[in-house]
Structure formats: structure tokens, C-alpha cells
């Protein structure tokens, strides 16, 4: 006689239709009909009382208030509602990062505008023709500074060097109006005059300090925008088919089972959401690096690089440089004539305008250091709060959006019925979902959109790391497939800036091409999990073979 194992009988009992707690009398479907109509669906064909549920493909096949069409409609609704939850949570983070960018951008632009206005207000009375005939030179400088800050492809040091060269040519002619100077003579003059520092130490000092200040300011502002853009793009990633089924089972199957008042078990909800957002959780490590890097640069802005003082006093440094040239006019002119020869005497009359305008510079700068300090403190508080966003997102969605029951509740919806939820909660990230009991996740196929955003986080973090030590590094992406290996286990040396020079860059910004990703990281992670899957397959075959032999 063939003996059936106990597991077979248990399976038969578990799969037998059940009416829940209402005995043999079919329960009313009034609550489900009300919910279904509220979601915008027609009540035509919706049962008045429970029916047999053999037709169901997602919910448990006991007695039910849902037809196949209702199940499909609820599944589509649950997908759209969950995606809306993701976008809503993302919009909150985007709003925080965008607000921080807007605050700093407004502060920095205001600094630059005030410096430029102070120059335009004071220079006409201080320098007369030395200024009025060279207004464009000064306007061009501030325009270049703004273009650099807005991420235009400009070499800041070259722009500053060009400004001083043009200013020297114009001022030397105005300070020596009795001579006629050709373009060739002016080229020679610049070469000889620069050896004797006609503007004193101002050009060198301003180049070092302004370059550092603009590099950190630009990278800081970009960092907020990149973070916001990453959240926006990741929030738009669609749910997989498996995830849609799991979300439907979590959110609407209890209604179909006549348990509308029963909340999902918290751990059950966490496993569903962690499975659905497995790829998103892999952003966490690089996201933390970005937040930490932004905070590090914030300390530089309000500390060693002193953005408030440097940017807010550009006009004062220019005035100081012009005064140095006026005071050293005779010495510089003599040395230029020795090197380039005497220029021809001009037929135009000379002007004594420069003599009338000489005098000690008395410009003042209004400090806004306190405003900057408050900006930095507010930014650091928000960045700290956002560091764990991606790994705390499942808990946030379950507690505030899905409205899951408490963790200790033994009368919650566990995916099958009202009771406790026994499986353990999965870890975070794609690799930890291999045994997720609620969502079937293929850990060998990471989402490419999210991998691209992980790469964007790495690039921005690297740029901030370089800005933190005064280096201006831009990246040109030449990768056809940015399917990077994920976040890694530790902060890379190039990201943290440990391998970089400690001195500020005085060269043209370097451009690094990002090499194509070979995919070894992803495949490597996958291959480590494949043996366990193969082992399960072999064990299954062995069990079947043993049963045949036993029979």
C-alpha cells in the first residue's frame, strides 16, 4: 500500500477553501464594493456576497469578494499608488536639496553682485579715465566669473590671467598718454612688465584664493543639484511584474478576503518593500559619500577658503592692484623702455587725469559671514538627516503610507490570512533579496537606470573630494554602458581624495574619461550566489530520484 507523506495532507488542508470567521454563511462584500467604487471602478459584476476564489491568480484562493477583473484592476491600482508613494517621498528629498541649492546660490550671487556694484560705484570717482575707458574689462571679468560658477567650460585661472593682461595694457597706455603704442609694443611691454609685478602680489594672491573659493562654491552648488536629480530619476523607475503582484497582495488582497479592517503585518510589509526597492537600496553607500562630501566642502566654504571674504572683496583687491601700478608707474615704465625701446611720441596731447585720481583706496566691504555660517549649519543638519534615506525608505513607506500594523501584532494581514508573520526581515540591497519570501528578485539583473545614478553619485563625490583640496577636476563620460558594480564596501581612495596632491591646482582643470564598466562587479556578485541555486536544483533532482527508488 502506498503511504502518502504528512506534507501532502497538510498541503491539501492549507489549500482548502475557507470562509474565515463567519462560519458557513457567505459574508457580505459591501466594504469591498464601496472601496472598489471609490477607486473609480464600475460596480457592474462585483459580487454582493463572497464567491469561490479558484479564479484568483495573486490573492489566496479561498472565498473572496474579488473577481478576476477586480484582482487585475486592484493590481494595476496598487502599482500606480505605490509608484506615487515613491515619487512623493522623493519630492520631499528633492525639495530639501533644491532649497539648499537655492539658498546658497542666492547668497553667492549676491556676494558677487555687491562686489561688482561697489566697483562701479567707487571706481569712476577714484580713477577717472583709468576706469571709464576700461569699463568693459571689468564687466568681462565678472561675466567670466559668473559663467564659471554656472558650470560653463571656462578655465578660471586663464580668465583671471587674461583680465590682468588686458588691464595692464589699457592702464599702461593711459598712464603714458604722450606715447603711441602699437599692439606689438604692448605685447613686449606685458612680457617685461610682468617680471616686475606691476600690480604687486595682488594677481597671484587673488588667483589662489578666488580659484579655491569658486571651485568649492561651484562644486557645492552642483552637488545639491546632482543629488536632487538622482532622486528624481530613481523615483521614476517602474515596478517589476513580480513587485506589482507582491504590492497587490499586501495592499488589496485583505479586502478581497473580507478583512478590510486588518492592517498588513509590519515585517511582511518590510519584506515586500525591501524586495521591490532592492536596487534603490544599493544607492545608499554612494549617497552617504555624497552627503558627507557636501558637508566637508561646506566646512571649507565657511572655513579655510573663506568664500565670504574672498568673493566679497574682489573689487577691493582690484583697486589695490591699480594703486600699486600707479605708485610704481615710473619704475615700471623705465624697465619696459629698457627692454622694448622707447615708443614713438604721440601727436595727441597728454592728460593729467591720472594725477588727479591718485590716492589711497578707502573701499569697504560689508561682511555677511554670519549669514554664511547659518546657511552652512542648516545645510549640514539637512544633509545628516538625508544620509540614510535609501535604507530607511521601506520603513517610512510601511509606517506612513501603507499603514502597516505594529511589529508585535499577531492579528495582522500576513499575506494569507489574519495572524502573525513568521519569516525574518531581509537585509538591504539587491544581494540580500535572494531568499525574500514575498518578492521574487533576480539578483543577477540590476536595474540599469539605478546603476547609472550610482555612477553619477560617484562622479559628483569625486569632484567634491577634489574641490575640498583645491583641485578643479571635471569628468567626461565616455562609457556606453554605465552598469557599474554598485556601491562597494568602503570609500574609494580617489573619492576621498587620499591620493591627491594637497596643494591647490594652478593648471588647467583635468578631464578624466570614465572607463567602460566591464561588469565584473555585478557578475562577480551574481556568480557567488549561483552555486547555492545550483545546489538546490541538484538536491531537488536527488529527492525525486530517491522517491522513485523508494516506490
Automatic annotation (TrEMBL):
UniProt GO MF annotations: fibroblast growth factor binding
UniProt-annotated location(s): Cell membrane; Secreted, Extracellular space
Keyword Nucleotide-binding attributed: no
Region (Disordered): 475-526
Topology within the bilayer: Lipid-anchor; GPI-anchor
Principal place of residence: membrane
Cellular component aspect of the GO annotation: cell surface; extracellular region; plasma membrane; side of membrane; synapse
Keywords from the named record: Cell membrane, Disulfide bond, Glycoprotein, GPI-anchor, Heparan sulfate, Lipoprotein, Membrane, Proteoglycan, Secreted, Signal
Record field: compositional bias (Low complexity): 481-494
Statement: the UniProt record of this protein carries the keyword Lipoprotein: yes
InterPro entries: Glypican (IPR001863), Glypican_CS (IPR019803)
Family membership: Belongs to the glypican family.
Protein name (Swiss-Prot/TrEMBL): Glypican-1
Amino acid at each position: 500500500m502506498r503511504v502518502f507523506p504528512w506534507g501532502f495532507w497538510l498541503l491539501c488542508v492549507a489549500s482548502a477553501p475557507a470562509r474565515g470567521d463567519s462560519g458557513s454563511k457567505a459574508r457580505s462584500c459591501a466594504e469591498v464594493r464601496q472601496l472598489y467604487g471609490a477607486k473609480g471602478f464600475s460596480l457592474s459584476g462585483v459580487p454582493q456576497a463572497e464567491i469561490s476564489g479558484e479564479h484568483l491568480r495573486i490573492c489566496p484562493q479561498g472565498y473572496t469578494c474579488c473577481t478576476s477583473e477586480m484582482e487585475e484592476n486592484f493590481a494595476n491600482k496598487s502599482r500606480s499608488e505605490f509608484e506615487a508613494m515613491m515619487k512623493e517621498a522623493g519630492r520631499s528629498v528633492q525639495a530639501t536639496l533644491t532649497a539648499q541649492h537655492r539658498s546658497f546660490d542666492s547668497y553667492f550671487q549676491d556676494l558677487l553682485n555687491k562686489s561688482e556694484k561697489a566697483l562701479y560705484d567707487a571706481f569712476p570717482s577714484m580713477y577717472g579715465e583709468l576706469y571709464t575707458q576700461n569699463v568693459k574689462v571689468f564687466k568681462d571679468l565678472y561675466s567670466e566669473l559668473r559663467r564659471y560658477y554656472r558650470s560653463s567650460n571656462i578655465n578660471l585661472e586663464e580668465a583671471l590671467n587674461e583680465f590682468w593682461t588686458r588691464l595692464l595694457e589699457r592702464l599702461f597706455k593711459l598712464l603714458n598718454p604722450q606715447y603711441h603704442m602699437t599692439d606689438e609694443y604692448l605685447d613686449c611691454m606685458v612680457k617685461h612688465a610682468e617680471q616686475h609685478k606691476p600690480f604687486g602680489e595682488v594677481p597671484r594672491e587673488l588667483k589662489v584664493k578666488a580659484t579655491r573659493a569658486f571651485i568649492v562654491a561651484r562644486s557645492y552648488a552642483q552637488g545639491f543639484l546632482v543629488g536632487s536629480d538622482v532622486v528624481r530619476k530613481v523615483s521614476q523607475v517602474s515596478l517589476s511584474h513580480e513587485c506589482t503582484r507582491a504590492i497587490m497582495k499586501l495592499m488589496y488582497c485583505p479586502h478581497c478576503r473580507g478583512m478590510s479592517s486588518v492592517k498588513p503585518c509590519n515585517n511582511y510589509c518590510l519584506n515586500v518593500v525591501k524586495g521591490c526597492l532592492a536596487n534603490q537600496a544599493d544607492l545608499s553607500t554612494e549617497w552617504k559619500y555624497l552627503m558627507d562630501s557636501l558637508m566637508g566642502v561646506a566646512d571649507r566654504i565657511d572655513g579655510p577658503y573663506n568664500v565670504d571674504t574672498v568673493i566679497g572683496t574682489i573689487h577691493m583687491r582690484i583697486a589695490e592692484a591699480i594703486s600699486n601700478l600707479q605708485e610704481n608707474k615710473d619704475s615700471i615704465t623705465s624697465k619696459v623702455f629698457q627692454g622694448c625701446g622707447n615708443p614713438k611720441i604721440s601727436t595727441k596731447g597728454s592728460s593729467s587725469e591720472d594725477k588727479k585720481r591718485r590716492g589711497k583706496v578707502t573701499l569697504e566691504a560689508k561682511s555677511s559671514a554670519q549669514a554664511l555660517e547659518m546657511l552652512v549649519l542648516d545645510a549640514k543638519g539637512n544633509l545628516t538627516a538625508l544620509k540614510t534615506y535609501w535604507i530607511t525608505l521601506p520603513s517610512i513607506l510601511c509606517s506612513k503610507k501603507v499603514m502597516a500594523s505594529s511589529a508585535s501584532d499577531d492579528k495582522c494581514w500576513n499575506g494569507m490570512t489574519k495572524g502573525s508573520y513568521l519569516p525574518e526581515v531581509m537585509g538591504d540591497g539587491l544581494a540580500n533579496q535572494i531568499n525574500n519570501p514575498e518578492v521574487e528578485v533576480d539578483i543577477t539583473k540590476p536595474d540599469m537606470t539605478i546603476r547609472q545614478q550610482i555612477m553619477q553619485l560617484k562622479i559628483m563625490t569625486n569632484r567634491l573630494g577634489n574641490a575640498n583640496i583645491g583641485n578643479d577636476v571635471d569628468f567626461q563620460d565616455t562609457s556606453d554602458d554605465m552598469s557599474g558594480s554598485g556601491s562597494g564596501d568602503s570609500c574609494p581612495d580617489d573619492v576621498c581624495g587620499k591620493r591627491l596632491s594637497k596643494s591647490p591646482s594652478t593648471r588647467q582643470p583635468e578631464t578624466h574619461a570614465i572607463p567602460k564598466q566591464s561588469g565584473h562587479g555585478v557578475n562577480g556578485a551574481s556568480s557567488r550566489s549561483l552555486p547555492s541555486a545550483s545546489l538546490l536544483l541538484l538536491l531537488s533532482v536527488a529527492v525525486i530520484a530517491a522517491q522513485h527508488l523508494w516506490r
